[in-house]
Amino acid sequence: MPEKVGFVGLGIMGQPMARNLRRAGYPLWVFARREERATPLVEEGATACVSPRAVAENSDIVITIVSDTPDVEAVILGENGIVPGARPGAVVVDMSTISPSATRAIAARLGEQGVEMLDAPVSGGEQGAIDGTLSIMVGGRPEVFERVRPLFQVMGKNVVHVGETGAGQVTKACNQVVIAQTIAAVGEALMLATASGVDPAKVRQALLGGFAASRVLEVHGQRMLDRNFQPGFMARLHQKDMRIVLETAHELGIALPGAAQVAQYINALVGGGDGGLDSSAVVSVQERMSQVGIKSTTA
Amino acid sequence: MPEKVGFVGLGIMGQPMARNLRRAGYPLWVFARREERATPLVEEGATACVSPRAVAENSDIVITIVSDTPDVEAVILGENGIVPGARPGAVVVDMSTISPSATRAIAARLGEQGVEMLDAPVSGGEQGAIDGTLSIMVGGRPEVFERVRPLFQVMGKNVVHVGETGAGQVTKACNQVVIAQTIAAVGEALMLATASGVDPAKVRQALLGGFAASRVLEVHGQRMLDRNFQPGFMARLHQKDMRIVLETAHELGIALPGAAQVAQYINALVGGGDGGLDSSAVVSVQERMSQVGIKSTTA
Amino acid sequence: MPEKVGFVGLGIMGQPMARNLRRAGYPLWVFARREERATPLVEEGATACVSPRAVAENSDIVITIVSDTPDVEAVILGENGIVPGARPGAVVVDMSTISPSATRAIAARLGEQGVEMLDAPVSGGEQGAIDGTLSIMVGGRPEVFERVRPLFQVMGKNVVHVGETGAGQVTKACNQVVIAQTIAAVGEALMLATASGVDPAKVRQALLGGFAASRVLEVHGQRMLDRNFQPGFMARLHQKDMRIVLETAHELGIALPGAAQVAQYINALVGGGDGGLDSSAVVSVQERMSQVGIKSTTA
Amino acid sequence: MPEKVGFVGLGIMGQPMARNLRRAGYPLWVFARREERATPLVEEGATACVSPRAVAENSDIVITIVSDTPDVEAVILGENGIVPGARPGAVVVDMSTISPSATRAIAARLGEQGVEMLDAPVSGGEQGAIDGTLSIMVGGRPEVFERVRPLFQVMGKNVVHVGETGAGQVTKACNQVVIAQTIAAVGEALMLATASGVDPAKVRQALLGGFAASRVLEVHGQRMLDRNFQPGFMARLHQKDMRIVLETAHELGIALPGAAQVAQYINALVGGGDGGLDSSAVVSVQERMSQVGIKSTTA
User: How far, in Å, CA of A84 to CA of A90, rounded?
Assistant: First the structure.
């Protein structure tokens, strides 16, 4: 008999992820702050609940995917949250991107009730969620990971158990550190090309063959050339993730100057009202600084 | 009848590149400052010359690949250089990595003599030179590019004509901007993982599946984990390339803060006596700053 | 009749500030988490209280100076805090360095009870607190500032009313932005001198005459030469202040790349166990990066 | 009998410096590329010469103050330069701001002819040159410094002998490192104030009392508030000086990330056509990045 699955948070990511689980045959109890977000899933056979607590009362495994640390704390530890509803032996799988240290504190609190926790943030964006091709970075006890693994394999393609509780969030933070800086590096390169009178589209093409080659150059580089920053990964979410990165660096007492610098550009992007664009729009901050507009001279 | 090819500069890169041309059947005249570098090629049928001038007197196409701008100026414009020897209609192909503006000045000088020039810097390192799989970024007139293309295809795999004279060097500068910052970003990520108590090898593995995926993460990331920075692309050459990048930004009046920051780390790496290591050893400067040693806990 | 003054927080800064008020003739009710901190003041005539609430019940003006935002929230808004004890018409003067937005929220909460609030963070260190020569940056309503001004003039020398509620904290944040970067700039300059074989003490002397002249060059520059980072302004407090700066930049959507970079060095300093040293010890992170030890060759 | 003084380079700085020497009674031989620059000095009794060589033939001490390293090399080492004209025992005093390593090479070349050299770059701007209140940082042999000291005291106020040949240029580089970063730090602070809704003029006023106090905050901070960047120290000269700083860091193998970052902003300022403004106009690059315009709300 399949595990009964609860799902809390039916946003841009959560809804298609929940749908994939339902279609794979899992019985599903769902909750969303905005009730109408549950409707399409109910039509496919899910049961809508009035609170995270109600979801937990009906489920073996409860997945949460909401915006930020306080949201996770609210749906798990709040008055009508998962804690008062969860049965001993249940598993909470938080797929939000939040602080590693907050994750560890929440897991400890759940552990007191005999409830297990995995942190399992994702990357791959809305399209990856729809296609079930997300990368999923999982922290927590190995046997709990094994238990939940079939669900992960429905939602994602690259599923890696990276270590103990919090390790998933640390890995996601590392991911955002690399992506943010690579985006900014690609922005600098395309700007250097344009300012030098060389077609940035040809430069991108030439670089795709060598060591500089990356998915960022391929995908986000093209967005910069097309000036098309929608849809994608919203800058305001990247801003939040970089805040987590910098808070973690502060807690650990390590220096991440590159990440810190790019985080400032993202601040300026969001402050300028463009927080809803893909975070590769950060190139516009770089362009403003130098008064250079990246522009391909070929189609 | 194949073009007669001259080759000036038989260093780590030049020697295997010249050998590939010889083995593809091109008649070859060569010059190296250190005479003994020519011997292996002579044994395969090349003719050693006493000066770049003598090389030019015998060749239709002269390839140069030396260290820095003054070296290129010496072998092309010097007293016993290519200019006094080159025949009208000849082509000089400079495959060194030098300044775009110096390249344009040299091409103008050659043009006065009726000699064409291409700038065609490469990436891919010693291994790529040996295997004939270099990326070659070419600037210059399209018809000249077409004439030299068969030679490029012997030496490299990803051959792109990116624009007018200097465009190849600009593209190479863009390449180095992206690689240097991606290396530093990977360094920060692996350090963040280690300081957080998460195995950096697992983090790298998890990131290889998503947008953070890049050749740098794959290759240089592994070098950082292995503490094995030999062989590779020497830091002192990357330092020189970043100097070209920053001089170009200065000339153009644009801001490249990310590139400028990483260039400082490379300075410190070279200053510490490690200029002969692969430039991904820059991670050791990041580690020193934070007193964190990246270390995988698995194999 | 002088205002009855309450004082919450008798740390390195608070104790000498409270003592100066007592010696200036103000009746004084005090509270410190560690009871023994109150003893010396009680010996000079102050009354020790069991809670911030008890302090507030006895005072017209309550001064708080504690470590961080949660501490201020605890002593003002907590169960035995100032809010339940304060009389309408009382004034709370928070002289801690905390977040401007948290300050505005606390002031709003106090306003609901008819209690006024000023934010009045200080600079000048322990010595300035002892000597009564602090700089005090005050935000809040002008008439409230006028009422408290006589107390400020006992504790400080440079007392400026900079604007509405929160403006004092913003000004303190600006102060820390300038000091942190100037410290790092002086560190780079002295390192450049040393690496060039020039006596950094003479360089500092020469710079003191021109535009580079600053109190930081004078005081912290000398600390760097003397390798004497005690006493001073503790790096861990500067780290906290830079966290506030970066959180504020995040909230406002502005880019402060220079501040962000220096904050990383301070992270590494504190992470290395040196959070108790003066924040000019950040030079040791810069020195580690470049493996250069600043050293005067004279005296 | 006073030393016969030669003066090469009668630009914004050179002309008032030469005039002060003439008015102090020194016999003066002068040369300027643009002849008309010499006229006002000739009217005060100086003798115009046709070349630096002619100046050297008539002088005991030859002062040079021109734009950049190649200019100094031209007037000293060129065909009609100082070298062919200088008498053994003469002293060349270069008051330009150029590279320390180039300075050492020039001094070695002069030494071969029995000509002494001091490097003596200045700070204080046009006004300091007119008023004779420059800061002068001198490198070279102590006895040569003593010989030239009376001339320095006519031109400047803060005259410091900092070490051997090149030490003056190193000190000037340190000066520019501190000033550039302090300017950018003040820019960030005033922007943070403005974005927070606090009057940046009041913030500046409050900061002038504490450790953040500096001549840069006082003078350049006011320029930022007044949006008045003329006259001052031209950004394009600061750009050149930062290039020297970064080249020196490259040569020495040290990391100066703060200086490197600010140099990028200056690039963007100059690239935007504002190289003729005071370098504190760099704040406009910071403002563009964050789309915040610093503006005082008081007079």
Answer: 12
